[in-house]
Design goal:
The protein contains six helices and ten strands. By secondary structure, the chain is of the alpha+beta class. The chain has a single domain, classed as Electron Transport, Fmn-binding Protein, Chain A (Pnp Oxidase, Chain A). The strands form two sheets. Strands 1, 2, 3, 4, 5, 6, 9 and 10 form an eight-stranded antiparallel beta sheet that branches. A two-stranded antiparallel ribbon has the order 7-8. It is globular. The protein starts with a helix and ends with a strand.
């Protein structure tokens, strides 16, 4: 019975993946109406790297969107002990996926459970879709930002001008790695 249900679920996921372009439209990052401080800091996002066959995502509330090196960019921070780290290290792309408040439980789960031990897509009911570059985003998303990695480096503890941040945020000296991604595409779910 469980095997049959699983096969039916896979079939519907396959159908949904093929209908991916019917629910999203592309906009310019300059058309984005959201307050990005609220969007990232309060609403949170899923950072996803990898292919549809092998990816991982994590919830994040640190990052930003702006202009650097004459191009629109997004920047994210990942600690090396996070399972998503190995994916962001080995891949050239990542996506930032934003959801409606009704999907907060998905973000809570993906931020508190490691994909190393649990299939987060299966457990949350997320429906993965692919971009033209074969990057993963989710049908439930309201906003997707696809990025090409252009720079990465660890936060340097010598760069802090105050001791409070490293003492409070990094008591184990497990500094984040920062990734800067050139924004390739912005997708918004059509109402």
């Amino acid at each position: 019975m469980k095997k049959g249900f699983f096969l039916i679920l896979l079939f519907f996921n396959f159908l949904n993946m093929n209908a991916q372009d019917t629910t999203f439209k592309e906009i310019s990052i300059r058309e984005l109406q959201d307050n990005v401080v609220k969007l990232i800091g309060d609403d949170w996002m899923l950072i996803t790297a990898g292919s549809i066959d092998s990816c991982n995502m994590m919830t994040a509330s640190w990052g930003g969107i702006g202009n650097l090196w004459n191009t629109p960019v997004a920047f994210i921070f990942i600690r090396p002990q996070r399972y998503t780290y190995q994916f962001t290290e080995s891949e050239n792309y990542f996506t930032l996926t934003f959801f409606e408040e009704k999907d907060r439980e998905i973000l809570n789960f993906c931020g508190s459970t490691s994909g190393k031990y649990v299939n987060k897509i299966e457990k949350t009911g997320l429906i993965p879709l692919e971009t033209e570059h074969k990057n993963v985003y989710y049908k439930q998303a309201r906003l997707v930002i696809e990025c090409e990695k252009v720079y990465s480096d660890f936060i340097d503890p010598q760069g802090f001008t105050t001791k409070e941040i490293p003492e409070n945020i990094y008591p184990k000296n497990d500094f984040h790695k920062m990734y800067i991604g050139k924004i390739l595409k912005v997708l918004v779910r059509e109402k």
